[in-house]
Amino acid sequence: MKINGKTKVCAIIGDPVEHSLSPVMHNAAFKELGLNIVYVAFPVKTGMLKDAILGARRLGLLGLNVTMPHKHAVIQYLDETESTAKAIGAVNTILNERGKLFGYNTDGKGAMIALQENHVDPEEKKMLLLGAGGAAKAIAFQATQETGELVVLNRTEERAKQLAELLNKTFGTKVTGRTLSAETLKEELETTDILVNATSVGMSPNVNTSPVPADLLHSGLCVMDIVYNPLETKLLKDAKIAGAKVVSGLEMLLYQGAVAFEIWTNCPAPVDVMKKVALSKLAEQGVRP
Ligand code: NAP
């Protein structure tokens, strides 16, 4: 690609950012569409965030992705934050529009698009969401608006209940929050259509763990695991054996990136190209399908 005086810059900020897949995904996408934009990774330590955002503003960066540990703290430095991102308390994408910084959270949309792109229509369906952390919260906000029923199970019951309460207050829904246990899983899974794991259980190096006992999985389920290292988690392996449809965490990663790309460029993201480079980058890191 040609870098010249008109090249615009997007970046990811966080700590650590060295292993992020976003630079390869977005650079491939910019190249594919012939856009004069580059994407780089800036490690930003806690305590340096305010200066980093001021720098992005002053240097006129086009857009930012924000990752741990800054997703919450960054909100105070933005001019406007989209209502969902504000309610979740986490921004992962920033658009700089003529010096004004707008914050978004694309995780929830990314997860729901991932389901739809894999031919899973959530309308009128029951979703069982495992987890009540940052990613689960973002998915829950989107899923509440797109599914027929949502139940949240979390190891720390209080967090599941708090999330359900926040959703019900925001949307006037009847989301339930319960503890994550073999009993609640058994009860809920019988009537579940879509199971989403948004806990970190099963993530490398704990690849032989799953949040769901294998014998509770059934062929009527679609199972999405948002963990993408490994690409095929134990939960997804067990779900396949049970005859369920499976969607990997790479799909959510891809579509949350695609939504960010579209916010920055106003162009549809070339997801096939982004997926191809993400898979080869993961393979370089030893993560294989
Ligand atoms: P987080 O805010 O730290 O939340 C972690 C969640 O996992 C909490 O609900 C926590 O429950 C639960 N948990 C952790 N250890 C557990 C255990 N041993 N048993 C049961 N539950 C456990 O993390 P996050 O940012 O939401 O990320 C969660 C996972 O999603 C990570 O693996 C991350 O890599 C992945 N992720 C993927 C994408 C994607 O695009 N595919 C995007 C974001 C995140 P407690 O509340 O009880 O602690």
What's the arrangement of secondary structure elements?
Blueprint: E1 8-14, H1 22-32, E2 37-43, H2 49-59, E3 63-66, E4 80-81, H3 83-88, E5 93-97, E6 100-104, H4 107-117, E7 126-130, H5 134-146, E8 149-154, H6 157-171, E9 176-179, H7 182-189, E10 194-197, E11 222-225, H8 234-241, E12 245-247, H9 249-265, H10 271-284
Bound molecules: NADP nicotinamide-adenine-dinucleotide phosphate.
Defining traits:
alpha/beta; 289 residues; binds NADP nicotinamide-adenine-dinucleotide phosphate; globular; six-stranded mixed beta sheet; 19% strand; 12 strands; single chain; six-stranded parallel beta sheet
Q: How far is it from the N-terminal to the C-terminal residue, by CA?
A: 30 Å
Class by helix and strand content?
Answer: alpha/beta
Radius of gyration: 19 Å
- Provide the residue-averaged pLDDT: 97
The small-molecule ligands in this entry are:
NADP nicotinamide-adenine-dinucleotide phosphate
Helix content: 25-40%
Order of helices and strands: EHEHEEHEEHEHEHEHEEHEHH
Number of helices: 10
> How much strand content do the residues show?
15-25%
- Which descriptor suits the 3D outline? globular
Q: Biggest sheet, in brief?
A: 6 strands, mixed
State the strand order across the main sheet.
2-1-3-5-6-4
Runs in which pLDDT lies below 50 for 5 or more consecutive residues are none
How many beta-strand elements?
12
